[in-house]
Amino acid sequence: MNTKVAIITGASSGMGAATAKLLAKNDIKVMLAARREDRLQQLTEEIHNTGGEASYKVTDVTSRADVESLAEAAIKTYGQIDIMINNAGIMPLSFFRHLKVDEWERMIDVNIKGVLYGMAAVYKHMEERNEGHIINFSSIAGHLTFPSSSVYSATKHAVRVFTEGMRTELGAKQNIRTTLISPGAVETELYSTITDNSIYPTLEKLGSQEWDQLDPGDIANTVLFAIQQPTNVTINELIVRPTSQSL
Fold this sequence. Notes:
By secondary structure, the chain is α/β, with parallel strands linked by helices. It has seven helices and seven strands. It has a seven-stranded parallel sheet with strand order 3-2-1-4-5-6-7, with helices on both faces. About 40% of the residues are buried.
């Protein structure tokens, strides 16, 4: 049986980096993608030093050409793509009244278009092989909304919708599995994208300060669980929260 090959976007930190390390430890070759080349180099070296196989390509997921080049690089390097993990995302929460339209547009470009570009880039390859596994990251915010999350929640709900739509089209006919993972509170750099500091009192009222955040490795374990299922089994959707998270 051939070793599987996975592309991971947003691999330079957080859930993406943790997933890359865990998959590599489980004999899956990983093609890492993100914008920060220094982080990608460091992670690639770390994986090599622990006996795994990894390569990287600097990629902006908002560029369709970049994402297509990423898929081509994976095929050139490893000969195939078995798994596409669309993890890259941003979360600049803000109150609507502050009209941070530039941030809304950036969220749409990264969180929606970036995932669609990733799916499109690997589709033909997976169709020809009649197999593959696409894993898209949504969020608990894709299942609910709260003050300041409206646009972010909309982008993550969109990922849920087109992942489910793809399941109905591709699963039975082309043997392409689809998995949606919706994390709750995770200790990542997502919060660093927030520029509207006025949201924090509202988040505190919602109880966010009481949550024990998940480690990115907890989400990596979830990804590996979905991948390791036999080919006749697809884990279509998983919500993964800290036990203490009420929202």
